[in-house]
Amino acid sequence: MSKSDNAEKLKRKDYEAELERLQEELCYLQDWVKKEGERIVIVFEGRDAAGKGGLIRRLTERVSPRIFRVVALPAPSDREKSQMHIQRYIQHFPAAGEVVIFDRSWYNRAGVEFVMGFCTEKQRRRFLELCPTMERFIVEGGIRLIKYWLEVGDEEQKERFEARIEDPVRQWKLSPMDLPSREKWYEYSKARDMMLEATDTDSAPWYIVPSNDKRRARLNCIAHLLSLIPYKKVKREKIELPKRSKKGEYDDVESMRNRRFIPDEY
User: Would you say 104 and 44 are in contact if contact means Cβ atoms under 8 Å apart?
Assistant: First the structure.
């Protein structure tokens, strides 16, 4: 059990202030990644409703999508099913100066695909056998590979699913796999433990993020991510807003007068 499980609820004001500080650091990290040509892959896995999407949004909302790319792949097509399992993920790997965030990843094979019967025990076992070697090659090739597992408790997951069912603006979060996965809680637990046992290595370790408390999970994970990367503040050039040239003056207001403006409803 994480110490945050018994902690008092984090006040919104304190949470937002610390989140803003961490997001500023992410901007410094971004500058460094771009300058140094770093390649970083961040994998987020966890049970359904563990909070992956919310954490990823906070991680990326203040940085450039040209540098921080989020990859959330749909179910594989018939063509992709005939390829090597890792093939459709590798094509999204970063070039120099990029951070790629996988909202679920090749580890689908060790979790949802196996538990829901989309792959065989032989395929799952073969994946777990080969995965550490593949990830070692990725790391030795110069990519920083960081893997997070978000762990949500039974009752908290139940409450989050119920909230999604009742709330029209959150119902879209319910995937076809969510409700069946709720029935298979223990099968997912066993699959998680086998995955961690086989793929938690020194070269590509798993880091567990307790996520019953969403605010603390977000802050703790972003802070931990920043601690793993030896970035430094890159000196930025001083920015000065240029004065508008009066050359070729033009009546902007009059030229737009008869255009189709949207109604002022608010």
Answer: yes
- The full set of domain ranges for the chain reads 11-236
pLDDT at position 2, please? 55
Answering whether pTM is above 0.85, one says yes
Euclidean distance between CA atoms 250 and 261, whole angstroms: 20
CATH number (3.30.2130.30, 3.40.1350.10, 3.40.50.300, 3.40.50.2300) of 11-236 reads 3.40.50.300
pLDDT in tens, 85-141: 999 999 999 999 999 999 999 999 999 999 999 999 999 999 999 999 999 999 999
Alpha carbon 169 to chain centroid distance? 21
C-alpha torsion angle, residues 173, 179, 184, 185 (rounded to 10): 50
Cα–Cα distance for residue pair 79/106, rounded to 1 Å: 16
